[in-house]
Design goal:
heterodimer; A: 384 residues; alpha/beta; Rossmann fold; seven-stranded mixed β-sheet; six-stranded mixed β-sheet; 12 helices; globular; B: 296 residues; eight-stranded mixed β-sheet; 11 helices; 8 strands
Chain lengths: 384, 296
């Protein structure tokens, strides 16, 4: 059924459709409407699972990971400060190999205080062992949550589905909300291990030696590598079942492109508009949308970008003291490309500032005219 | 009551990693004996987690999850709720945490879980300092006590954790110690028969941190009870207080003299400790309306 709903509402719909058993959450702007929507259904006995109205995000993740170890399908959602408070528990959830699914609504981190979209909160959690999927619109948010359960429960790693604060979380769009039967056919009843069998007692998450710790990290790295194939496979199956899909990386008009514009999340939507205008003006520009960030889809990116001489990366995030994080990751991924690229990073949209098609066109003009790339990012705003 | 002298089947087995004479390990053994095998146990960083032993060994014959420091309560709640949604309703979840994990870093998450009346038994193994990291002051450390981070003596009084828990109006809260093992086990069994958040405060002597001989743990707790330093009582629904044992009301010096951590105390300090013990007992008598009764 087509519904006109926000991104937050889309996420909540998917959580319910996947028959999530434990939802543990705590309010934070701009995530709160996800929590409220699920609580509304809980009050009407329409949620299906159990709701834990915990006293912090830290406890939300504690409850999710322990419920997951006990074999339940779990969900939480957070943003910004809440995600930062959870940091310790993110490592723990991944290290325990629990397939917790979490929606993260990108928001600036204080200080100073602000409430708008900025990807630095989720990108700061890249080392925690969570799969990260960045969504472009409300439909992708709903669909990615459904996919996330399949992926996480297959590889036993937790999965973050990331939507941008306000641009997705609060903007309304027509969204196809699939039928329960169709989702049931795609996401089977949860069948993850229960680690607490009283008839066969074991010790979960003990103190290990240096070598054993190393070994567990190695296993997680293997699981991450393995998950790349699973993410692609789940997406392909999703496409067959629901008639739409997203891939790890999406390439638009890259066949004859001399410059690849690399974007993520909502800036991609704006870039699609800019791309159309640029093509009309005769510029041979293509667009590459990075959807999955952890694991980083190196092979998929190289297949698209290896022969492309110029690359412009737009980041709505910044690793202070370096540059935009997607740009750094992309440069590292392309280090073995047969021919060198001119890769220029642009930091734009920080703090939720506007990135309009004109700004993107200016970025493209700069990247095309450039003799060489700068090591640091070029800061782009609507004013400059 | 005739003491049961038959040898019980232990769940905390030999081979655990506690220091010699550890009062906490004896407490865990008694709690687990009363809890039984059909239970899930949560431990968090504390001496408890050390006692359970390193990989690939476990000294405990029940499923155990070694969770993070400050989340014993929400961890237990998560497991209990997961079992409920999976249709399992007859397996209790019990969390062991130390005094640091309860009085300090875990207080917020414990308060949240208690407020929601989550369904688990929480046992605070209170050895009155951060013993696992080598004797540092916590808010469970009594006044004047020497620790590595209160070398001139702790300036604060011990936090009244039982009053904090009672203020949440949880179904059950009780104090217990290894000097009174029948009382301790009766409280675990009573808690096991209830639902909702149940809290046990176990005074757990640490010969190393309390600076006393290895054979002194049971006697130290006995004396703590008899001097009203640590009275035995229970609180139902946060309101109904019952004293479980009328102490001999011995002077507090009898307790303090057993432990090197108090050896620097002069008559003035001892007077303060005595006054605090007297006030604790008088408060309890008021709240319990003078009722003294063993655990029912």
């Amino acid at each position: 059924m087509k519904k006109f709903i926000t991104g937050n509402h889309s996420v909540a719909e998917a959580v319910r459709l996947c028959r999530t058993q434990i939802v543990a959450a705590y309010p934070i702007t701009p995530q709160t409407p996800i929590y409220e929507k699920l609580a509304e259904w809980d009050a009407k006995k329409e949620l299906g699972g159990m709701m834990m109205r915990v006293e912090s995000e830290h406890s939300a993740m504690a409850a999710c990971l322990s419920a997951s170890l006990a074999g339940a399908r779990t969900f939480t959602a957070t943003s910004s400060q809440g995600l930062a408070l959870m940091h310790e528990m993110l490592f723990f959830a991944a290290g325990c190999r629990t397939p917790v699914v979490m929606a993260c609504v990108n928001r600036t981190l204080a200080g100073p205080w602000a409430f708008w979209s900025d990807q630095t909160d989720t990108l700061s959690e890249r080392e925690t062992g969570w799969i990260q999927i960045y969504c472009e619109d409300n439909q992708e948010a709903l669909d990615s949550v459904i996919q996330a359960y399949r992926i996480a429960e297959k590889v036993l790693l937790p999965c973050m589905v990331i939507i941008e604060g306000h641009f997705i979380s609060h903007f309304m769009e027509p969204v196809e909300v699939p039928d329960q039967e169709l989702v049931d056919s795609f996401v089977p009843p949860v069948a993850i291990p229960n680690r607490f069998d009283v008839d066969n007692p074991g010790f979960a998450v003990p103190v290990v030696s240096q070598k054993e710790y190393f070994h567990y990290r190695q296993l997680m790295q293997e699981a991450m590598d393995y998950s790349l194939g699973i993410i692609a496979q789940v997406d392909a199956e999703f496409r067959e079942t629901f008639g739409r899909g997203y891939s790890l990386v999406e390439a638009v008009q890259m066949e004859d492109a001399e410059l690849a514009l690399v974007t993520t999340a909502t800036i991609t939507s704006t870039a699609r508009v800019a791309l159309k205008r640029l093509r009309e003006k005769g510029y041979k520009v293509g667009l590459v949308k990075i959807r999955v960030f952890r694991p980083f889809p190196v092979k998929a990116l190289r297949e698209i970008l290896d022969g492309i001489p110029r690359i412009a990366v737009i980041d709505r995030n910044i690793s202070l003291g370096r540059e935009g994080i997607f740009c750094s990751e992309l440069k590292a991924a392309l280090i073995h490309s047969p021919a060198p690229h001119l890769v220029q990073g642009y930091v734009a949209g920080i703090g939720g500032t506007n990135v309009d098609p004109e700004l993107i066109e200016r970025i493209v003009a700069d990247a095309l005219a450039r003799k060489e790339a700068t090591d640091g990012p070029i800061i782009m705003t609507e004013e400059s | 009551m005739t003491p049961n002298t038959s040898r019980p089947q232990e769940i905390l087995r030999s081979g655990h990693a506690a220091c010699p004479g550890c009062g906490l390990a004896i407490g865990m053994r008694l709690v687990l004996r009363a809890l039984g095998r059909r239970a899930v146990v949560v431990v968090v960083p504390s001496c408890v987690a050390v006692v359970t032993g390193p990989y690939p060994c476990s000294a405990m014959e029940v499923p155990v999850f070694h969770s993070a420091f400050e989340i014993a309560a929400p961890t237990a709640a998560g497991i209990a709720n997961a079992m409920k949604v999976r249709g399992v309703n007859d397996i209790p979840v019990l969390a062991f945490a130390g005094d640091g994990g309860t009085f300090d870093i875990g207080l917020q998450s414990l308060s949240g879980a208690a407020d929601r009346n989550e369904d688990f038994i929480y046992v605070c193994m209170d050895n009155e300092a951060y013993m696992n990291t080598g004797i540092q002051v916590s808010s469970a450390t009594p006044q004047f006590v020497w620790t590595g981070t209160s070398p001139a003596g702790n300036t604060r009084r011990k936090k009244k954790i039982m009053e904090i828990m009672a203020a949440h109006r949880i179904p059950y809260a009780a104090t217990a110690c290894i000097g009174f093992p029948e009382d301790l086990m009766a409280k675990v069994e009573k808690a096991k028969g209830m639902r909702g958040t149940r809290f046990l405060h176990l005074l757990s002597p640490c010969p190393t941190g309390w600076k006393m001989a290895e054979d002194m743990s049971p006697k130290a707790t006995l004396t703590a009870v008899e001097t009203n330093i640590f009275p035995l009582y229970e609180i139902v629904d946060g309101l109904e207080y019952t004293i479980n044992y009328r102490s001999k009301g011995l002077p507090v010096e009898r307790y303090l003299a057993l432990q090197g951590r108090y050896k620097h105390l002069g008559p003035e300090e001892i007077k303060v400790v005595q006054a605090e013990a007297d006030r604790t007992w008088a408060d309890l008598e008021t709240r319990s309306h003078g009722i003294v009764s063993p655990v029912a």
